[in-house]
Amino acid sequence: MARARTSRRGKKRRGRGKVKKVMGEYKRKSLRSSSGRKVKNRKQAVAIALSEARRSGARIPKRKRKKK
């Protein structure tokens, strides 16, 4: 039972590290989008960071949307 808990924790940590790395790239102005252009918008940088973290296997929930 403890094993399942550690694997979840590891996945969260993996995602946290990936997000930290990508946001650091944004801060240093070296982050680029898929088209090759430099990312200037902070929200776009966050979206790229979360996308890369999910791709690496981290469990990151989808964005919650407001109901109309």
Explain how this protein is built:
The chain is mainly alpha-helical and 68 residues long. It has one domain (2-55). Helices cover 59% and strands 0% of the residues. It contains 2 helices and no strands. The chain has helices at residues 2-27, 42-55. Helix 1 runs antiparallel to helix 2 (42-55).
Radius of gyration: 14 Å
The largest β sheet comes out as: none
User: How many domain regions?
Assistant: 1
Mean pLDDT: 84
Number of strands: 0
Termini gap: 41 Å
> What portion of residues belong to β-strands?
under 5%
The coarse overall form would be: globular
In DSSP terms (H or I, runs of 4 or more residues), the helix count works out at 2
Q: Helical amount among residues, as a percent range?
A: 55-70%
The multimeric state of the shown protein is: single chain
Low-confidence spans: pLDDT under 50, at least 5 residues?
Answer: none
What structural class do you assign from the helix and strand content? mainly alpha
Can you write the helix and strand succession as a string?
Answer: HH
Topology:
Blueprint: H1 2-27, H2 42-55
What is this structure, in a nutshell?
The chain is mainly α and 68 residues long. It is built from two helices and no strands.
Give short descriptive properties of this protein:
68 residues, mainly alpha
